[in-house]
Each structure stands twice: as structure tokens, then as C-alpha cells.
Amino acid sequence: MFEYAPAPESRDIVDIRPSYGLFINGEWVEPQGEERHKTVNPATEEVLAEVAWAGEADVDRAVQAAAKAFPVWSAMPGAERAKYLFRIARIIQERARELAVLETLDNGKPIRESRDVDLPLVAAHFFYYAGWADKLSYAGFGPDPRPLGVAGQVIPWNFPLLMLAWKIAPALACGNTVVLKPAETTPLTALAFAEICRQADLPPGVVNIVTGAGETGAALVNHPGVDKVAFTGSTEVGRLIARSLAGIRKKLTLELGGKAANIVFEDAPLDQAVEGIVNGIFFNQGHVCCAGSRLLVQESVAADLLEALKRRLGTLRLGDPLDKNTDIGAINSAEQLAKIRELSEAGEAEGAERWSPACPIPDRGYWFPPTVFTGVAQSHRIAREEIFGPVLSVLTFRTPAEAVEKANNTPYGLSAGVWTEKGSLMLWMASRLRAGVVWSNTFNRFDPTSPFGGYKESGYGREGGRHGLEAYLAV
Ligand code: NDP
Hints:
This protein is an alpha/beta fold.
């Protein structure tokens, strides 16, 4: 293995304020309550900034600002709205390096990922939906599709700016206005986005950002002035939201958890499959709702594949997320680390065999080494529950029918991957897997033109592509 000299990205490009207010009606305002929380760098536990905690009165102020902006924004010709979205997309590209460093500082993900995956996709989403803004009449939702009104959007911490883009870009393109709540551990890029809205001269009130905890999210989704709720996060909270909105007129999309199967057949190119497995579960420390957290490998090649996988994992570098050579960054929070540890210990206690490469762990911050469990039974918690960390559970199968049976044996249904050289087998599998996305000889590929969303307890509604417009239109 090569030795790498440190190659840290400079953090001088970001300018983090010591304290942030709420972004309401195009301005920074102070919350009514006194409460503030610190956001930390999970790689060092250093405090980055203090953010405001929005209470019900603040959420109400934000929703009212969005409601006031709605008549003007929705009546604007699509081509005019598109100009704002194109402008936002271009500013994101211009400030991509700064936003990538900020995301890495606040989230713990490697700079290589925030720079090469998150930020290009964020800009691409705004460009893509900017293109739809003046073509909504041709999107297949009737000759004159109308926006819904105020969208209340709640997002998680694993892809903070990318989830913001998935939510805000289609909402604005369709003529809705927005109140968005970022996750409590990763508010900084959403607050930087508020500045970008100002830079783009977006009319006041079209985008409002309220920071806070789960209660802030609950106040937003339950606010009577919100016409549409979009949520990405845990199935548990998704269920709460679905329950509280049942029977009322609010439109709801839920993007929830997953326990995806990454299925490798004996005829697959094994070296390529190893890369796909690594990308499937160790990308973004496994904090990915569609992560390939269950490896299903055909018994005849299981030993060879596992040997190659372990060899490959021995070359992954864990450490400073700002270092351009880092593959595995920090776990986003102490709570998430505790959850990953608890489930990994349950895996061992239930009889699975645990393996990690020799991997020095930094003294400060939240870290978990890449981990592989073999000898996993379908009944084990590590085969059933979303771990949301760099932990892979390996199961084997003999026939395609058994692979389908095992892959679908989960309450979730967000994604799956199939590795085989046979096109017929690929299609046979894809038509039987109960998953919203099925990747063929690849994994964790995203594109703004492709719809993304789940079956079963992974949620409902689609984000991305033409389908993603539907959630924001009265159709
Ligand atoms: P949550 O579902 O709790 O958080 C997602 C977002 O919802 C956050 O902004 C959160 O705020 C907010 N929220 C929390 N409670 C409520 C509520 N009652 N009403 C409205 N909004 C609310 O996920 P966690 O961050 O707690 O992570 C827990 C687990 O969820 C993870 O271990 C992982 O398994 C899974 N998860 C799945 C994701 C996915 O993409 N499928 C994404 C994130 C997590 P706040 O951050 O302030 O709590």
C-alpha cells in the first residue's frame, strides 16, 4: 500500500459566524426564545457556531412570510422563476469549494465526497428544475398545473445541502414557497444557502430557513398554513408525521429508511463488484438511506469475494475529513455513534462474526471503523434494522429465487443492487425486487433526472426527475 502525505483542504475559504439567527422573509431575525444550540465539527468536537432554536411563534412567522410571498411567486411566469433558479445554481457552482468545506466541517464527510458528489449534484438539481419551471404545462400533469402553496420541508443530516436541493429546487420551480428546517447537527450549509438566496435577489419570503430540533420540525409540519409537507429522515418520525397529517388536506411525501440488498451473482466481475460494495456501504460512512447494507452473495463465490473485499477495505483511509486522501470521515454525532455501536454489539451477541481492518482511530471526534459481519442470519438485528453507519452484513444465497426472497425480506424498500453479466437475469431480478431504485452493476448513483423513492416502510412519493414535480403541483 502507498503511503500518502497529508493533503488537507484549507478551511480559510469558509467564514463561519459565531452565531446565526433565523432566515425569515429575506432577513436574518432573532428568535423569540432565548434558546441557542452549538453545532460541532464531529471530527474534532470543536464548536463551529451557535444557531437559533425556532419555537412555534418563529415557525408561524416563517410560514406567514412564505404565505405572503406565494401570490407573487406563483403568478410569476415560469421563465422568470427559472432565471432565479439558474442564478442560484450558478452561485452554488461559484461557491462550490466553500460550500464543500463547510459541509465537511459540519457533517464529518470526506471532502472528496462533498466536493465531487454532493456539490455537483446540488448544482445539477437546481439547473435541472430551473429547466422545468417554464415547461410545467408539458410535464404530463394537465395543461395548467398549479402550485400548492407553502411547502414545509424537514431534512436530515446525512446530505444536508443535497437534501435541501432535492426539496427546494422542485418546490420553487413549480411556484411554491418554502419553509425548511435543517437537521439540528448540520444547519450550516442551509444557513449559507440563505445567503445565496439573498445574493440571487430571490424575492423575500420565497425561501425561509428555521433552525431547531425535532419540536421545530413538528411545529412546521403541523402548522395549519402549510399546504405540503416533504420529509426525509427516520421511519419512526415519518410514521409520526403521517399519523398527524392523516385525514387532512396537506399533501405529504416521505423519504424514509432502508436496508438495501446488494446482490452479487457468481458470474459478476468480482473486482468491480467489490468497488460497488465499498461504494454501497462505506460512502458517506454508511449514513445513506439507500446504502447497500446487506450484501447477498452467491455461495459459490462468497469466499473469493470476501477475501477481495477485506483486502480492499485494508486500503481505505479513515481520518481527517478535510484531507483529500480520506475515504472514511467522522460519524455525524455522538448519538449516531452510540447507535452504531449498540447495533454492532447486538450483531456479535447474536452470533455473527465481526471483522474490521487494522485502522487507527483519531483520539478526538466520533469514529467507527469499516466493519463487516459474516455468518449473519436473516433474524439478526443487523440484518433487519437500519444501522446508518459503515457496517455491512453479509448473507449468502444459492439461487436467484432465494436472492429475491431474502432481498425482499425487510419492511423497507428503497433500493437494491444486482451484479451479473446476464441481462436476462438482471431484468428478472429487477422486476421482482420490491425497491424504488434498482441499480445494475453499480450502486449509489444519483442523477436529478431520475426519480428516487421507496416502497413499503421506506416512504411514499418520488423526488427527482419529472416525477418529482408531481409532489409540488395540484394534480
Ligand atoms: P430523524 O428522523 O429524527 O430526523 C430527521 C429530521 O426530522 C431532522 O431535521 C429532525 O430534527 C426532524 N424531526 C425529528 N423529530 C421530528 C418530529 N416529531 N416532527 C418533525 N420533524 C422531526 O432522524 P435522526 O437524525 O434522529 O436519525 C435517527 C435515525 O434515522 C438514524 O439512525 C437513521 O437510521 C435514520 N435516518 C434515516 C435517514 C434517511 O435518509 N432515510 C436520514 C436520517 C436518519 P432534528 O435533527 O433536530 O432532530
